[in-house]
């Protein structure tokens, strides 16, 4: 069995409040007479901006204050703010638009729609798959699911099962577990009505923005159930991808287990 682990860039789980004295160095006044540096100044500013994103001060798709306005707000230089925003942009939390400013990233962005969809057609022409929702129900979290979502065993989760197809060909079979307290109104009817990326729905209707994910990948073969749903023979090779997705504050909000057919697709992961 082949087992690989991949992880997207993570955010600080507990963003620090900005405090020039505790940073050990005053940006405009030399060394402060306190303990050694805990984190660079721009990292503290990045943490404060992240807190504002997490609190909903700036909603997905909204324009955030300019670098100059943020510099005044935090009493630091514009260059420090720029460096903080550069990192947030690299982590896909904000999007810079030439001549317009910096906006809170949204899963409706063209560049974000495929950020968490790693299965790419061998032809190279990417397209978002069609969904067929098989099942949606509220259940008690099994012990292993509760552990991975950092919930108490027996708490309510939303269980979702679907098949995704490319050009009418079933290619991905997925099972998702979501915290019931967050996704109270998620139903099969709503999922069938919605035609965009699922993460965009989570963001717009449930206030949950996926920040990062970690995955485990294995090589498996189809069993009777997966073969039937994917329309292939039992024993066909596929990739098994288990993902835990996180929102702000490093809170786990999704466990996803997918089976991927790779006869006409490949799994792409860009490392830097």
Automatic annotation (TrEMBL):
Region of interest (Disordered), ranges:
1-23
Mind telling me which Gene3D superfamilies this protein's record contains? Chorismate lyase-like, Winged helix-like DNA-binding domain superfamily/Winged helix DNA-binding domain
All copies of domain HTH gntR-type, residue ranges: 39-107
Residue ranges, compositional bias (Polar residues): 7-23
PROSITE patterns in the record, alphabetically? HTH_GNTR
Q: Does the keyword Transcription apply?
A: yes
Recorded superkingdom: Bacteria
UniProt entry keywords in alphabetical sequence: DNA-binding, Transcription, Transcription regulation
Q: Which GO terms describe its molecular function?
A: DNA binding; DNA-binding transcription factor activity
Tell me one GO biological process term: negative regulation of DNA-templated transcription
Protein name per Swiss-Prot or TrEMBL: GntR family transcriptional regulator
Native species: Undibacterium nitidum
């Amino acid at each position: 069995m082949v087992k690989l682990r991949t992880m997207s860039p993570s955010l600080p789980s507990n963003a620090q409040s900005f405090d020039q004295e505790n940073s050990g160095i005053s940006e405009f006044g030399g060394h402060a007479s306190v303990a050694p540096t805990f984190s660079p100044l721009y990292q503290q500013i990045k943490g404060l901006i992240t807190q504002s994103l997490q609190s909903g001060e700036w909603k997905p798709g909204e324009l955030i204050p300019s670098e100059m306005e943020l510099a005044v707000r935090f009493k630091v230089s514009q260059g420090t703010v720029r460096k903080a925003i550069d990192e947030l942009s690299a982590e896909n939390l904000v999007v810079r638009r030439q001549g317009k400013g910096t906006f809170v990233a949204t899963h409706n962005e063209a560049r974000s729609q495929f950020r968490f969809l790693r299965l790419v057609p061998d032809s190279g022409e990417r397209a978002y798959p069609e969904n067929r929702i098989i099942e949606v129900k509220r259940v008690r979290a099994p012990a292993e699911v509760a552990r991975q979502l950092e919930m108490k065993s027996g708490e309510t989760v939303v269980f979702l099962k679907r098949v995704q197809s490319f050009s009418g060909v079933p290619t991905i079979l997925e099972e998702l577990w979501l915290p019931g307290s967050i996704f109270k109104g998620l139903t099969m009817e709503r999922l069938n009505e919605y035609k965009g990326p699922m993460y965009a729905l989570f963001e717009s209707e449930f206030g949950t923005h996926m920040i990062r994910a970690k995955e485990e990948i294995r090589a498996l073969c189809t069993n009777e159930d997966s073969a039937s749903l994917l329309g292939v023979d039992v024993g066909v090779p596929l990739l098994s991808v288990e993902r835990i997705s996180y929102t702000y504050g490093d809170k786990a909000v999704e466990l996803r287990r997918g089976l991927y057919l790779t006869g006409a697709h490949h799994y792409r992961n860009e490392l830097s």
